[in-house]
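Dear support,

I submitted the protein below through the web form. The confirmation email said the job was done, but the results page showed an empty box. After a refresh the structure appeared. I'm attaching both so you can tell me whether what I see now is the final result or a partial one.
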Amino acid sequence: MFTGRRRWERKGLQIGLVVLLVASAWMLRQTQGAFVLELYEGITRPFQMLQPKATQEESLRDARVLELQTRIGDLESQNKKLKQLLSYVEKEPLSSRPILARVVGRSADNWWQQVTLNRGSLAGIKEGFIVRADGGLVGLVESVTPNTSRVLLISDFKSQVGVTITRTGAKGVLRGTSTSEAVLEFYEKVPNVKRGDLIATSTYSQKFPSGLAVGRVKSLNLKQLPASVAKIELLPPIHSLDWVSVYPKPENQQKENVFDKKL
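What the results page shows now:
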């Protein structure tokens, strides 16, 4: 009798456990685990309240330190670039020293077309002034306000610059492609040029002084009609311009070829 009772109690306990498991599974399915999450939060909340507030304060302090470190790193980088630029500028005669300016505006849609500088007419900049950076020619000042200047870049597909091969004197017109490369169309059908040749502004240019570095010949197509062409790698880092030098428009320049009217 006693043995049978214990057996029924044992079966009842097993049945109860099965019912409890089924009910729990059904509840989890209906609440998508919300009940378990609430239960977990209820259990752990007292422990979270016991954590010292210093942890949150330390996190905020660490975030501020990282922010300051980032700003200091940026300032150090800018200071280094500016020192290099000033060192380069100081080597030039006082009468021809440029105006230093920084790129402060650039549209993603016109990344290779134009940039905005933080200096304008109040600093002495005028339309037609020349803009240079490390590596050579960057572009031409297109418009000016009292405190800003807009620069048309030589990488703009509308730009056209009269250039020459420094090694041989072969001349042509450089056209932008809205990338870090440009296309050089030669005046001669079969020019004396080879891959790796350096190019600079032409001696006939009306808008630029001669001898400004522009790029390097990357590839050639001497069979192109009506004139041979070359793909040019631009030397100035136009994709990442920061500080630039702005020079007055050259005077007493000879009239450039018709191809050099736009830029």
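Response: this is the final, complete result; the empty box was a page-load delay. Residues 216 and 236 are 11 Å apart (CA to CA).
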